[in-house]
């Protein structure tokens, strides 16, 4: 009888791990995970491609019964053994997406907590210069969700490749640099500097970059107006908006009669638009041309104090938002002032949105802010509507916008 090769052994072990996960057989799974990985893949499956996917699919719809204790413990055991929260199956679903669709709320909450833990840990490791560990995970599992790239986008610097890119290069930096350049040329929203050099198009109801990304759309008008109202409770306040875009939020800010209205904007074509629309001549309006990273240190040095700050840029990632509030809002905001920001990261996938909303709330708390949330339904029928025609991808596919208002913890 022929002996099994190690790869046949591996396939068999993977199948047994996925099968034990599907049966919520904790005893078998505990033994199998001593030698096997919680991230094995079944290439023949479409939905239950990983142990986590298998364990969650097997819970079935909540109408037919809530996930039992063993199902919950199976998911927890897999996560404790390093199962990746945002691994994708062939239908482009994470395990959390499946839990949400099945209505299995408890499992969904566990997946959100796992996402939050992972993202906070990765951020800490990046801060300590240990980002390489995340890289290993990213490279091993190539089918994994990247947060949505709209608004607070991946601001990977071409000049300083992220650890992930360094890992992919395997030391072949010139090749890597070309690959990154190609990617950024193809999609300027991957790099803030590339975006700021790119050609913008103002069209009715939409602002597009040269890669056809929607930078701003007019379906967000209600959201912008609400941001202005929640940040500015009375007239005569000192307000700053970072990122002018289509001018929707700045127009709303003007209706609250501010004593000072600072606008920080970095794109030359947006400056041109501000000029054409007379913003430079409006009383109490002060326009600061440049990236907020360069402008705000000067305002701090000038001793500027603000009652309300709003942040909505483009082609910047979550780390930029975190730097913005922990480095600058803390210095510029009056003690009883309010801070608001466009909460759009991960808005093309509910679980990513929920994870990033929580991560932001925790980081804000660490920086000294309380957060209050207001839920706003986005216009019905937005997803799949003609409004996205001609755009690279819809950056918003979920039903509810969670509007944050931050104040200093008392
Ligand atoms: C999504 S739009 C803002 C839309 C705006 N809230 C409105 O109501 O129309 C983002 C804006 O941020 C600007 N921007 C991007 N990166 C920036 C940076 N680092 N500093 C300042 N402005 C930036 C973009 O040029 C763009 O005008």
TrEMBL record:
| This protein's record includes keyword S-adenosyl-L-methionine | yes
Q: Where is this region: Disordered?
A: 146-173
Gene Ontology CC entries for this record? cytoplasm; nucleus
Compartmental location: Cytoplasm; Nucleus
Q: What is its EC number?
A: 2.1.1.-
Primary site of residence:
cytoplasm
Q: Which GO terms describe its biological process?
A: methylation
Instruction: Look at the named UniProt entry and state the broad enzyme category this protein falls under.
Output: transferase
Q: Which InterPro entries match?
A: Ankyrin_rpt-contain_sf (IPR036770), Arginine_N-MeTrfase_2 (IPR017408), RMT2/GAMT_Mtase (IPR051038), RMT2_dom (IPR026480), SAM-dependent_MTases_sf (IPR029063)
Tell me yes or no: is Lipid metabolism among this UniProt entry's keywords: no
Cite the GO molecular-function annotations of the record.
protein arginine N5-methyltransferase activity
RMT2 domain mapped to chain residues: 188-410
**What's in the keyword line of the UniProt record?**
Cytoplasm, Methyltransferase, Nucleus, S-adenosyl-L-methionine, Transferase
Instruction: Give the quaternary structure.
Output: Monomer.
Function of the protein: S-adenosyl-L-methionine-dependent protein-arginine N-methyltransferase that methylates the delta-nitrogen atom of arginine residues to form N5-methylarginine (type IV) in target proteins. Monomethylates ribosomal protein L12.
**Of which family is this protein a member?**
Belongs to the class I-like SAM-binding methyltransferase superfamily. RMT2 methyltransferase family.
Protein name as annotated: Arginine N-methyltransferase 2
């Amino acid at each position: 009888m022929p002996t099994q090769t190690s790869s046949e052994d591996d396939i068999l072990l993977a199948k047994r791990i996925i099968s034990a996960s599907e049966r919520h057989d904790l005893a078998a799974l505990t033994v199998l995970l001593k030698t096997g990985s919680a991230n094995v893949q079944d290439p023949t499956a479409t939905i239950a491609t990983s142990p986590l996917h298998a364990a969650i699919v097997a819970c079935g719809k909540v109408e037919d019964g809530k996930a039992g204790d063993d199902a919950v413990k199976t998911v927890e055991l897999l996560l404790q053994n390093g199962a990746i929260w945002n691994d994708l199956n062939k239908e482009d679903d994470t395990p959390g997406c499946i839990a949400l669709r099945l209505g299995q709320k408890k499992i969904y909450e566990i997946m959100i907590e796992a996402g939050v833990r992972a993202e906070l840990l990765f951020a800490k490791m990046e801060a300590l210069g240990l980002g390489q560990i995340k890289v290993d995970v990213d490279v091993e599992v190539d089918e994994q969700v990247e947060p949505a790239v709209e608004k607070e986008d991946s601001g990977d610097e071409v000049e300083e490749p992220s650890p992930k890119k360094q890992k992919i290069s395997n030391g072949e930096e010139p090749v890597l640099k070309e690959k990154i350049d190609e990617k950024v040329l193809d999609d300027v929203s991957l790099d803030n500097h590339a975006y700021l050099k790119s050609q913008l198009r103002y069209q009715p109801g939409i602002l597009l970059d040269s890669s056809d990304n929607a930078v701003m759309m007019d379906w967000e008008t209600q959201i912008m107006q609400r941001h202005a109202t929640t940040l500015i409770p009375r007239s005569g306040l000192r307000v700053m908006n970072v990122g002018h875009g289509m001018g929707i939020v700045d127009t709303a800010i003007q209706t609250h009669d501010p004593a000072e209205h600072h606008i920080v904007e970095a794109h030359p074509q947006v400056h041109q638009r501000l000029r054409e629309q007379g913003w430079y001549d409006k009383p109490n309006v002060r326009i600061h041309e440049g990236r907020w990273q360069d402008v705000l240190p000067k305002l701090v040095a000038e001793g500027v104090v603000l009652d309300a700050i709003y942040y909505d840029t483009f082609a910047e990632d979550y780390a930029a938002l975190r730097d913005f509030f922990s480095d600058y809002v803390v210095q510029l905001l009056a003690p009883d002032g309010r801070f608001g920001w466009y909460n759009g990261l991960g808005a093309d996938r509910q679980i990513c949105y929920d994870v990033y909303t929580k991560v932001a709330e925790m980081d804000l708390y660490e920086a000294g802010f309380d957060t209050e949330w207001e839920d706003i339904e986005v216009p019905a029928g937005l997803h799949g509507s003609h409004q996205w025609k001609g755009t690279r991808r819809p950056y918003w596919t979920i039903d509810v916008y969670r509007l944050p208002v931050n104040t200093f913890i008392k």
